[in-house]
Amino acid sequence: MIAGIPAARAADEAAKPLAVYREEEPAVMRRQFFTPESPYHALRSAFVRERPVPAGLLART
Question: Are 15 and 7 in contact (CB under 8 A)?
Answer without folding.
Answer: no
